[in-house]
Amino acid sequence: MGKIQNIYDNNQFYDEYKKMRDGKINANELIEIPTMKSMLPNLQGKTILDLGCGAGGMARYFIEQGAKNVYAIDISQNMINEAKQLPCKNIEYHIMAMEDIDKIDKKFDIVFSSLAFHYVEDFKTLIHNCYNLLNDNGILLFSQENPIATAIVYNENVSKHIEINNKRYYLISDYNNISKRNLDWNVKDVIKYHRNFETIINTLINEKFEVLQIKEPSASKEAIELVPKYAYQTDRPYFLFVKAQKK
Ligand SMILES: C[S@@+](CC[C@H](N)C(=O)[O-])C[C@H]1O[C@@H](n2cnc3c(N)ncnc32)[C@H](O)[C@@H]1O
């Protein structure tokens, strides 16, 4: 397995990412967060593990919605520092890689993760560990970049899409090439892992999860008015949302 990258502790990357998130008009606020909230089970009295918690926005939301406590982990010191600026007594933050969660000696009602699973190379072990960390009938809810969006093997000489009659068509010829992707996103060589839909869903099934719900939403009319490029999202969903249950 390759070395685990911690790109959010690259200060140039982090500053750009923070600017984008603080701006509020972004795909996280307009698409990802509302969809995750719509898929959450009742949180009253629940114990929750948040993987790749970032600045802790969802962890605080869980407590506001009645969760008993949240154990939130992230590999990035920058992110955990930012999260701790808004302390909350029922949230415990830890600097930890998702690759190490087998060391957590607690069980949870919900394992939650927003836009972090595509940074992990060994998806099978990650899902296996999530299963072990859940109580019986516990829920795993995660979002990640949509396999259609991660498919292209990035090359600065190749456009990610072509235009015909003012409509964009995205290139997905690398879709079944399940491997690492090196992207230019704020800085060069940001590493993500592309997996096709079959790999993601069959891994959950093989690890004994029951898949309850999948979403690949388009941007709402209101979001497209704020960010016109989301109109293209109807052709290429940005995100994949998966809700599964431990059986
Ligand atoms: C796109 S951000 C999402 C943050 C937060 N979940 C949110 O939605 O606002 C991805 C987060 O995953 C974290 N991350 C990336 N690779 C990780 C790993 N191997 N283990 C733990 N956290 C990781 C990053 O540090 C970053 O905070």
Count up the domains: 1
Oligomerization category of the chains in this entry? single chain
CATH overall fold name:
Rossmann fold
The gross shape turns out to be globular
Strand order of the largest sheet: 3-2-1-4-5-11-10
What are the salient characteristics of this protein?
247 residues, alpha/beta, Rossmann fold, 7-stranded mixed beta sheet, two-stranded antiparallel ribbon, 11 strands, globular, binds S-adenosylmethionine
Describe it:
The protein has 247 residues and is α/β, with parallel strands linked by helices. The protein has a single domain, classed as Rossmann fold, CATH 3.40.50. Helices cover 29% and strands 29% of the residues. The protein has eight helices and eleven strands. It has helices at residues 11-22, 27-39, 57-64, 77-84, 123-133, 147-150, 197-206, 221-226, and strands at residues 47-51, 69-74, 91-95, 108-114, 134-145, 161-164, 167-170, 180-185, 187-193, 209-215, 239-246. It has a seven-stranded mixed β-sheet with strand order 3-2-1-4-5-11-10, with helices on both faces. The chain has a two-stranded antiparallel sheet with strand order 6-7. Strand 1 (47-51), helix 3 (57-64) and strand 2 form a beta-alpha-beta unit. The two termini are 30 Å apart. The model has no long low-confidence stretch (mean pLDDT 95). Bound molecules: S-adenosylmethionine (SAM). Residues 4, 8, 28, 52-54, 57, 74-76, 79, 97-99, 114-116, 119-120 line the site of S-adenosylmethionine.
